[in-house]
Each structure stands twice: as structure tokens, then as C-alpha cells.
Amino acid sequence: MAEPTLRYGVNGTSNLPGSFFEAASQDPDKTLLVAKKSGEWTPMTFKETEDQVRRLAGVLLGLGVKPGDKVFVSAENRPEWAVADLAIMAIGAIVVPAFVTNTEDDFYYIMSHSEAVVGITSGGSLADSVSRAASQCSGLKTMIVMDGETKSRSSKSLKVLDWSEELAKVDGPADLDDRVAGLDADDVCCFIYTSGTGGRPKGVMLTHKSIQANITAAIDLLKEGDVAEDQRFLSLLPLSHSYEHTAGMHLPFQTRSEVWYCESADQIANNLAEVSPTLMTAVPRLYEVLHDRITRGVKAKGGVSEKLFNAAVRIGIKRMNGERLSVGEALINPLLDKLVRKKVKMRLGGRLQFFISGGAALNPEIGGFFMGLGVNILQGYGQTEASPLISANRPGSIKIETVGPAVQGVEVKLTDETEIIVRGDLLMKGYWKDKAATDETIVNGWLHTGDLGSIDDNGFITITGRKKDIIVNSGGDNIAPSRVEGILTMEPEIEQAMVDGDKKPWLAAVIVPSPSLVDNAADAKAVQKAVAEAVERANHRLSKLEQVRRFLIADEAFTVDNAQMTATLKARRHVIREVYGERIDALYPKKS
After folding, report:
1. Strand locations in 400-506, DSSP E?
2. Cα(206)–Cα(245) distance, rounded to whole angstroms?
3. Which CATH code for domain 15-24+45-183?
4. pTM of the predicted model, to two decimals?
5. Distance from C-alpha of 92 to C-alpha of 208, rounded to nearest angstrom
6. Please, where are the H alpha helices in 35-154?
7. Which is more confidently placed, 102 or 45?
């Protein structure tokens, strides 16, 4: 195959659209993006994707978008999302993604705060909400919608255009390759607004260099598992999140891998079986859901099947930890591979090499459960401000209770308060229009993560808590709520939990019971009793300080819709505390 004739970047430095165009020129007919349309998985090649990127770049230039301008994007994961991202970057503009679960007010805030000049969205109620928000922004005059009609969404202040119609009108700009070649690695290419477990989100300014540092490190890591190139990703996490934006989109582009877009979180089990991915990035909540489904199914079968399954997990964990198997365990283990572990792998598509976990701390017991079943999980750690990858377990060396050592090109150390601080090319340029927060977060070139941790002699990092989330009880003891919550939710009766107890003598909790418990219980008293027994079991695995003394049953599940979870399924503790604060306080004895 002929070598590409174009060299992108300045003085050999790389930029993201340039890397994509180089990959496309080397393998134009290779499948890249695959989405389900009218019930059928429909592929797009590198060449077809590149053609759309060039056309959309022409549309944006025709609308007057200039280098440095911001373009708002909110859509479900789909090929057009990737096309939009690449086209915006290719003309030197800045991508401003937003979660589809945001409220109209959230959309307005991000559009106005970022000073976006054009918006891109999908269709349906999302397009309605985005368009209404855009109509209130003085600087945003044009919206491009991927699906559906445009007239009803247009107004005096906002012109709404149809994606397909606009792309059909233009060819790629003649000077686009020159524009891409002129991009500097230090140019800001993306604002990722943090999902906000507290307060208004901040616009994290990421550069070509910071994201590329992550990609280079990820490729280095995946090479150890021989899964660095020509893989099949199943994309589930929102592309508006830095984790999926880097690891689920730009990484596959540069490794010439396929990206298949999951239909929805509800369809994950079906899509895993249909797509047969080799790699998948996900947050711990996915593994918790899969764990729950698998264990419930096993329990329902009971008998020999349940005994064999439990043996597979137990023996697998021993093997993972390097413990010596008994003669009986060594004899039965190959049989368990066939009767249990192979079936679990087939439920995950049959070809999965690694789950890559990030976005929040993975409960070690959940991780051990999957590892015991022969499903490899590479738990990593990162922050949006670090593009986001900081550390990860490597294929040849997994300590599931840790987030692994720092990845290539990253320095990590602890402050005297055991806060994790980070240095390297992966760091953001700062927060948009917030110098004070930038100066507080990046000090002398080190990113202060706000996470507390420890680092062992081999460099493996363990996250012990969040500086701002740490509960300090009335006795002055520090307690990490995430650990307690993780152990509580291991109990089958408990779906979600939020622990409270700052300045109090002991811990209390807000608990969401599992749907199956609620469905099968005779009444509310039966639910309360079952949850109390589950809390008691969990307490046996916790220190005296960490034990939950009293709890209340939540009115509803913590969800994105009720603002009690972020779009990446992390509990918004301050919101839950606002809803249940009075009832939590009532659990404690009144002061005389």
C-alpha cells in the first residue's frame, strides 16, 4: 500500500484530526463505525467517515465558524457524533460536548458559558430542548439537527438546519488538509464540562497534546495484551464524557479498530451478544448491574448449577491471587472452565479480551467476581482534567483492588495529606474563564486531583477516598463513604446506598432496595426487615467506625432524571443530602 502523501502537524507534532486522516488514507475501505439502523447493524468505512467529516467541515466554514470558535454538540452515541467531533477540530474550532441527560437550563449554561456559535444535536425531544436553550443564547444563531424536521424548531433568533441536506450541498474545503497541517499540538480542541457531583460544571480545556498523551499511553498499555490494534469496541458511555471521548473514540481511530455503538444501557446484554466486542470501556455501575443479573440467574437455578458457579468464582479468585489450589480444586478447575466460565464469556459475546473500568472506583469484590470467572478487567483511574487517563492495571499484571501504576509519560506522587497529584503532557490547559480554580488545581505544574490514596512499592495506586467526600465523625475519625457504600451494595437486597455521618457519632445511610425485593416483599415492613438484615451482614465486613447504625429507605432510585446521579452514574451526594437531609438528621438522637 502506498505511503500517505500528507504529513499532519507542525514540526512533527501530532493533532487528532490529522491522525484520523492518516489512518483513513492507509486503510480507506476498512470498517470503522457501526450503528444499528432499522434493526440492522450498518457499517461505515474510514473513507465514508472521512467524506462526511470533510463535508461537515465545509458546512461549518460556510456558517462562518473560525479557528478558536466553539461548537456545541449533544447527541446519543452514533457515527454522526464522531464526524462532528473530527470536523470541528479539523477547522481549528473547539468541540463543546454536553450530556443528553442535561436539563434545558444545563444546555443553556454550557452554550452561553462556552460562547458557542453553532450547535449540533440529534432529534426528537433532545433537539427540542437543545433548540429552546439555543434560542436564548445571543451568540448561537444556527443549530444543525441529525434527525427530523427543522421548521418547527427554527425561530427569529435561531436557524435550524438538516444535517443530511447540508452535507449534500457541499464538498470538502480544498484547503482542509492545509488547515489540519497547521494545527498545533498545544491548541485547545475540546471543552469537556465536568459532570458535576456538586455545583455548576467547569469547562475543562483539553488540547491535542493532552488527549494524544492519553492515547499513546493507552496503546503502550494494550500492547502487553496484544490488543492494541484492529479491535472491536462497544461504545456505551456518553461520548460527552472525557473517558469515552478519548478511549472509546480517538483511541480506536488511531488503532484502526471498529467502534460499534450500543443501542442503549437497557440493550447492553443483547448488544454484547450481537457485537462480540474484544474491548469495552465502562464505569463500575455496568459491572454491578451485570454482577446482579448473573448472580440472580444462578440463584434462581440453584442446585448443582449454583454450587459449580460458586466454586468457579472461589477457585478463580484463589488462582488470581496466586494461592495454591488443593488437589480437588486443581482437578475440578478445568471442568469449571468448560461448564461455567465459558458460558459467562459467551454471554459477553465470546471474544471479549478486556473490560476497561474507569470513571469511579470499582468495588474489589465485584472485580474479583469477574476475574474469578475468567473475565479480565483493567481498572484504571483518571480525571477529566487529565484527559482523563492517569493510571491503569496492565494486562500482564492486574491487582484488581488497585487502579494500577501510572501510565506511560505520567508522574504521580502523594502530598503529606496523601492527596494524589499528577504531572505530564496529559494535563488540561485550565478551566475556561476560571483562572482562580485553575491556579488552585494546577500548582507548580502538578494537578491536585482531590483524591486520597496510597502507592505501593511497585507503583500500584489505591484510591482511599475523596478529599471533599471524606466523612469526619464527631470523634475526629476519617471515613471514606465510597468503601462503605460499595460493601452495602454487594448485598442482593440493596441496589444503591448513600452514607452520611459528618460530625455525627456514627454512620447512617439512605438505601434504595433492589427492585426484586420490592416486587416480592409483602409490604413495606418486609422490605425494611430484609434491608436491615442485609445491612447487618455488610457491617460484619466493615470496621466498627464504618458500620451503618441506622438507615432510611429512599423514596425512589438515584437516577440521572431526578438529578441524584451524574450522567456517568456517580451519586450526587449533595443532591441526595438535600432531598433526605431532615430525615437523615432525624435518625440521630436529639441533643438535650
Report:
1. 410-414, 419-424, 430-431, 442-443, 446-455, 461-466, 471-472, 478-479, 494-500
2. 11
3. 3.40.50.980
4. 0.83
5. 11
6. 46-62, 79-90, 104-114, 124-135
7. 45
